[in-house]
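anyone seen this seq b4? input:
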Amino acid sequence: MEKAREEWLIKGRKEKEEQEYHNKRKEAHKIIRNKKKTYVQNVTESTEDDQKHNNTRKIYQTVNQYMKGYQHKFSVIRNKKRRTGIGYKGESRNMERIF
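predicted toks r here
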């Protein structure tokens, strides 16, 4: 998709490249929509299973997590001079180099 977009922007937006870019964008959006749909189905199925097995705590945890949405995980990083920095969990190694 990125290659099609770059070609479309560089070459002056010819009709063929524009159509290719929009088709790739539609495909990507469709894939994301389907993945989200399967995720929501899995969450509802697990919640229904928890209800059958009387796991009310687990039900409330999943409902609250779903209502809050995605939240980034932060970690505190310190360098040799004891300065602190906050970064995402995956970026901890990159932050160590910066400090």
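DSSP finds four helices and two strands in the chain. The first strand starts at residue 74 and ends at 78. kinda curious what u guys think
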